[in-house]
Design a protein that fits this description.
Layout: H1 2-28, H2 37-48, H3 55-61, H4 68-75, H5 84-91, H6 93-106, H7 108-118, H8 122-133, E1 142-143, H9 144-153, H10 158-174, E2 182-183, H11 196-202, H12 218-231, H13 247-253, H14 257-271
Antiparallel strand pairs: 1-2
Helix pairs in contact: 1-2, 2-3, 3-10, 6-8, 6-14, 7-12, 8-14, 9-10, 10-11, 11-12, 12-13, 13-14
């Protein structure tokens, strides 16, 4: 009898190990459509704890849906293929410059504090703010966790967005991101559209209230953007046009050359250069 019981015990252990291995394998798979997404999410939940994600994040992951609109947007990013002139026209550069100068004047104390702390002048920050969300006027309506989870499941940039998904779930754990938060199509958050991992790494409390709110606080969003640039090599007092010391930090913001050039041009116009 003892031998039989021991045999059953080892059989149960073996079954549990096989199930764990099966869940791990499922969570590493990817797909190019919604088929298999729900089972992938369930498997990912089972492994999330090993990635340092707590119960709040794990529970939030259970409410995601396959985001077809996110996939469509990811497959049709046309504006970065434009010439610089066309890109500036499509993005409304002249309007951003005019409104950006007004924003700089209206928020002079805030931009002075940010420059003193990070060494980043107002121009490039305002250029990013204006191009990303029209100075916080529209930040998207896509369910953030669904967008990031869909891209983490998608085969195109799987590993990159699994890092973003883990970061988003950690933001839910620490209260920075609400489980039902909405944002841009790729899961970008707030007034300057930070991906979740960048919120974790560079999020800054710009208004001094003890928390980071990239959506409701322009001070937090702009201070975080300055902190991001510093983290990508920005040095106080250096120029930020192509070939100058801080252009590489701007390149860290977006891989598209036209976007980098637009930030530099619009920022210089706002800064009066």
């Amino acid at each position: 009898m003892a031998f039989v019981a021991k045999g059953r015990f080892f059989a149960a252990v073996a079954t549990a190990l096989l199930m764990t291995a099966g869940m791990a394998q499922a969570a590493t798979q990817c797909g190019n459509n919604s088929a298999g997404f729900e089972s992938w999410v369930q498997a990912y939940q089972q492994q999330a704890g090993a990635q340092g994600i707590g119960s709040r994040g794990i529970n939030a992951l259970g409410n995601v849906k396959y985001a077809t609109k996110t996939i469509n947007a990811d497959r049709n990013q046309k504006s970065f293929k434009y010439s610089l002139d066309k890109f500036m026209q499509v993005r409304g550069a002249q309007t951003i410059i005019a409104r950006g100068r007004a924003q700089k004047a209206q928020n002079a104390a805030l931009f002075n504090r940010i420059e003193q702390r990070y060494g980043v002048p107002a121009g490039p920050l305002i250029a990013i703010w204006g191009m990303e969300t029209g100075f916080g006027s529209y930040m998207g309506n896509q369910h953030t966790l669904s967008a990031v989870a869909t891209l983490a499941y998608d085969c195109r940039r799987t590993e990159y967005f699994r890092e973003q998904l883990n970061a988003a779930l950690k933001l839910v754990d620490n209260g920075t991101l609400a489980p039902n938060a909405v944002g841009a199509m790729h899961g970008e958050i707030g007034q300057t559209q930070f991906l979740p991992l960048n919120v974790l790494r560079y999020g800054a409390d710009g208004d001094g209230n003890g928390r980071i709110d990239m959506v409701r606080s322009k001070a937090d969003a702009l201070a975080s953007t300055a902190n991001f640039l510093v983290g990508h090599g920005w040095r106080a007092g250096g120029g930020y046009q192509p070939g100058q010391a801080n252009y590489g930090a701007i390149a860290g913001w977006n891989a598209a050359t036209v976007y980098q050039q637009a930030i530099a041009i619009i920022g210089a116009k706002i800064d009066g250069e």
